[in-house]
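Worked example 3. Consider a protein that binds zinc ion.
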Amino acid sequence: MTSKPHMVSFALAALTLSTAFSLHPDQQKVLLVSFDGFRWDYLYKFPTPHFHYVMRNGVHVKQVTNIFITKTYPNHYTLVTGLFAENHGIVANDMFDPILNKSFALDHMNIYDSDFWEGATPIWITNQRAGHASGTAMWPGGDVKIHKSFPTYYLAYNESVSFEDRVAKIIEWFTSKDPINLGLLYWEDPDDMGHHLGPDSPLMGPVISDIDKKLGYLIQMLKKAKLWTVVNLIITSDHGMTQCSEERVIELDKYLNRDHYTLIDQSPVAAILPREGKFNEVYEALADAHPNLTVYKQEEVPERWHYKRNDRIQPVIAVADEGWNILQNKSDDFLLGNHGYDNALAEMHPIFLAHGPAFRKNFTKEAMNSTDLYPLLCHLLNVTAMPHNGSFRNVQDLLNSATPKAIPYTQSTTLLLGSDIPGVYEQEESYPYFIGVSLGSIIVIVFFVIFIKHLIPSQVPALQDMQAEIAQPLLQA
Ligand SMILES: [Zn+2]
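Given these inputs, the predicted complex is written out as structure tokens:
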């Protein structure tokens, strides 16, 4: 009789399958690192051995489409919420909210007003609500009280804190008595030097080499703390950088009277708030003013930018062509490198690489959207995603085959792209989850059929007899 070995093997198969669909706690650790302004092709333009070490032993996405406007705060909030700027509300580094009657200005560091951030819920809060601990080291918004919460651990923003000290904090939090499972680490370069030198400068070589050494240091410290093989490390950035020139400047003073408007955000996307009764005058003066400037009324901003449905987007939006800067006049600060332009431009695109137990090895993917990172993070952390504009399915192939391909959160929601109404969602289906459940069910059924057939055939009445027994009372009635 061969039934017993069959039973055992089927039982084992069913057990293996069911455990394969629950996440191992070791796979639920994530360290997200952003090197501000790291353009996608710096990896090929300059020697970057540590970045390439991560790529060989992990995954790499060649083209990451970030969000418009391609500025620091909007994109960092997208990375941790999966939302377009019009949905998460951090629409620029410099903003004015006419409903709150409040300003948000990066240069003045008055960014700590919770009201600006509460259009969304960043991943660290969702992670904490699920009972985990999070830590942010200088991540934009990571020291702001949002929905009444700070991260479990955080460093108050201070650009003079060294990279090494930031790494030390992250390692301390991952190995503390109440350890984090989510760490976020931010570094200001190569953005600062990219603005200063321009990305085409040969002096960018040493800047990128320094970043590569910093990544090497992080890897070394993770290995030393025995975290390298258990933490899912994701390295990305917010935007790229393009070369500018003093020859390519659009001076607003040539076309507009300063008394007729307030300039909320400057370059390369000028956010213009006309004074009362001056809208038509301002719009018409600027509409055809310069061949390298495209001017939109707020409601006419192209759909693909998802940049119109928010009170913080100003009535007139003037967008410069790549490499052009908008100034009020030439005496204003000028930058040799800039970003903020159309997110379809390759030079605005960031990097994306990852390494860890959940990721495939030596795998290159062609393209993703930066909004897709958020559902990926939720998957890795095993938390339920808030409504977002990304797609987990779009990045699922970055994960290795041993990694469960789906968890219950996939029953949750993805914001319909370009939906007029925040709150209207499409269901993100989970085929692998469905296939897994189906396979598990089939194995269980087959197991019972064989069990019944081989062990107790004599005790199972023939189907015809059963039907006859059921039918009898009816016949008697
Ligand atoms: Zn930036």
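Take a moment to read the result before moving on. The chain is about 30% helix and 20% strand. Residues 431-455 form the longest helix (25 residues).
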